[in-house]
Amino acid sequence: MKSTMYTVTAAQSSVTKKIPAALWALTISAFGIGTTEFVIVGLLPTVSADLAISIPSAGMLVSLYALGVAVGAPILTALTSSIPRKKLLIYLMLLFIAGNGLASVAPSFTTLVIARIITGFAHGVFFSIGSTIAAALVPAHKRASAISIMFTGLTVAIVTGVPFGTFIGQQFGWRATFIGVALLGVIGLISSWILVPDDIKSEGKVAAKDQFKVITNGRLVLAFLMTALGYGGTFVAFTYLSPILQEITGFSESMVSMVLVLYGVAIALGNLAGGKVANKKPLKALLWMFVLQAIALVVFTFTASDPVWGIITLFFMGALSFSNVPGLQLYVVQLSEKHLPGTEDVASAFNIAAFNVGIAIGAYIGGVVVESSLGLPATPWIGAILVTAAIVVTLISSKRAK
Question: N or C terminus of the chain with fewer C-beta within 10 Å?
Fold first, then answer.
């Protein structure tokens, strides 16, 4: 599978001229799923005010969604491995629609949490099987291009879906955003029903011994820890980016939406650059990415109060925080190929879980910091501490590799 929303290094330059129609169905679904994951970041103040809860409590919607993905990736992917791919894809979109539909009518914070976890389950399995389906739609030499096309949906979601969804929530209420995302799920479901072929076979049941081998391999465990700390450190501040921009930088709600567009562009560029840099020596590239990422987070601590310098720093922060994603996934695949051949798909699924465990931990720590005497201004440098821990783990991994 080599799958995760974080797998794609860059759009392939040799994309097939005639793109299979089924790929567009996957791309639409990826767009909807990517939007629902990150749009909550822009909606935290709105949700907090409407449900009469604190900002840190609303931030738990990020953590618990991520935990849903973390469970859904390795466990539910294994449990559903024998289900035909098209049928499973349709089931997942139904679950996605149900989760967002429930979120849109949630009468309480508890119900909203349940809805987010349900949606997270669908997310985890979708990105674990999505690249397998995409690869099956094209000849072997065009599989990378097919996978990159599907994951374009996720990148576009960060660049456009999240800020637009935030704007809708600010104008018409956060429930309207979830209704819109559910409708995206309906479009994705219909597209998959019509366009995805019926003859895409499942890969067969995932052996429990393979999962055990992966989670007990020291090198892979270090890689998963690197993923959780390096990626999660960003979310200490990113989860509360909207309140930071409003309360510290002094931007209006409408301006926050525009800044989120810029942040999304930075993420897309960072993911592209990070993939190219990490192609040959991912571990060495990751070390420097983590160092620069930690520096950017520390600098943002001091520039967040200034609109101009704050935006400039935020752009670099966005680019660096997601630049490590392709390298992390590539490194895990390389390790599994070298030390546990045949477990690459299982290792990829566990790395999806590690990414989302990192999100959950980062968002939770951010909430604790916001509620403490340190407050919102401290979230960037606290995040830098987590990334610094990732630097230490990377150095240990480098030493073991030598």
Answer: C
